[in-house]
Write a structure and sequence with these properties.
This protein is an alpha/beta fold. It has helices at about 25-30, 45-60, 75-90, 100-110, 210-220, 230-235, 250-265, 265-285, 315-325, 350-370, and strands spanning about 70-75, 95-100, 120-125, 140-145, 145, 150-155, 165-170, 185-190, 200-205, 290-295, 305-310, 340-345. β5 and β6 form a beta hairpin. The chain is globular.
Length: about 375
């Protein structure tokens, strides 16, 4: 069945993906302006290092980092950082909160690491979230801030345990949800969500305690692959460079986005904007006869990734297909969750007015399918 959504219902920009996410035209225009002076130049020289420095300073400002915290970066994305953490941040045993695909994957990395003790994994069913419990023998407590697969978000809180680190996976949260830097030791993320850039890099905001842990483990003699050595990443980052060649376009696009965030009002502006957009979706779903928020507890609903269940009488895959045919893309649910659902990302680059248009388009498609 072919459905043509009326033009007056269509968003100006139809990208609502959970990553890669919408990239603003202004970012791309700025990148095009440095195609000859920046792209294709040495990452060890001032031209590139100045952009890395610009980005690190912008992140320091965005997250209001306390004295002694460092912005560290490396190649490989958040998936690589799970392995980095198992080598350079966890001494022996860590407790993990697992309430979706990505928290479970980090826990799995630690479980398979032969040099670590058995992890303590606290699991909640999709749509909910477990809580940390101070437990003897744990030297790290690890949790996602936002679970991209399910649309659940929790508020990072430091675990009050002697010398233990609080490590937060912020891949889809950073830049879109509020966070207090005093509540974490490591807050790591990638560029392809709120920051409107491409994947392939990881960033970690690290406290003095985390930096000391990295040094301690390095000096212990533990074997660490060079590419995953967090001490090497720290030493390079403070020089505004990476161990090996990074994606220059990714760095520049992200730096443009971070500067835009800070110019608009910083992290509070970002969080208010995503809250407005996600609130529109949740309010619509609560009032709808055929849609409901998947996350039943409003306190756990993500401000950046809204998951909306659709009544079984209507096939959500047909809704997504009709939207895609009309230029509204990446509203499909996380594949492994297996629900009749829409998953809609509303990172800060997404205009709330486009979310209003999206809702009108979804309603139109549902009417046509019915």
């Amino acid at each position: 069945m072919s459905i043509t959504i009326p033009a007056d219902l269509l968003p100006a920009d139809g990208r609502f993906g959970s990553g890669p996410s919408k990239v603003r035209k202004a970012q791309v225009d700025a990148l095009a302006g440095v195609w000859q002076t920046y792209l294709g130049t040495s990452h060890r020289q001032k031209t590139v290092k100045s952009q890395v420095g610009r980005l690190r300073q912008g992140l320091r400002e965005l997250f209001s980092l306390p004295e002694g915290y460092e912005v560290v970066l490396g190649n490989g994305g958040s998936t690589a950082f799970w392995d980095v953490a198992t080598f350079s941040l966890i001494r022996d045993r860590a407790q993990f909160l697992s309430f979706g695909e990505f928290g479970a994957k980090f826990a799995s990395c630690a479980k398979k690491a032969p040099h670590l003790g058995a992890p303590d994994v606290r699991v909640a069913d999709p749509g909910g979230a477990p809580a940390f419990e101070v437990t003897a023998g744990m030297d790290a407590y690890c949790s996602p801030h936002n679970e991209t697969s399910t649309g659940v978000a929790v508020t990072p809180r430091r675990v009050a345990a002697d010398s233990a680190l609080t490590i937060i996976d912020a891949t889809s949260a950073a830049g879109g949800l509020a966070v207090d830097a005093s509540e974490f030791d490591v807050y790591y993320f990638a560029p392809q969500k709120s920051f409107g850039s491409d994947g392939g890099l990881w960033f970690a905001l690290m406290s003095p305690a985390a930096l000391a842990r990295v040094s301690e483990i390095k000096e212990s003699g533990r074997w660490i692959p060079d590419f995953l050595d967090l001490q090497t990443a720290v030493e390079n980052s403070v020089q505004d460079q990476t161990y090996n060649t990074p994606a220059l376009a990714t760095i520049f696009l992200m730096a443009e986005q971070v500067d835009w965030f800070n110019a608009q009002g910083g992290l509070s502006w970002c969080a208010d904007r995503t809250s407005e957009s996600s609130g529109l979706l949740y309010s619509w779903a609560e009032a709808s006869a055929v849609a409901t928020p998947f996350v039943t507890d409003p306190a756990l609903r993500s401000g950046v990734v809204a998951t909306i269940d659709i009544d079984d009488a209507i096939d959500a895959t047909q809704i997504c297909a009709a939207l895609r045919a009309n230029g509204i893309v990446d509203t499909e649910p996380y594949r492994k969750l297996g629900r009749n659902q829409l998953r809609i990302a509303v990172f800060p680059a997404v205009e709330p007015d486009d979310v209003r248009k999206l809702i009108g388009s979804i309603d139109y498609v549902i009417t046509q399918l019915a």
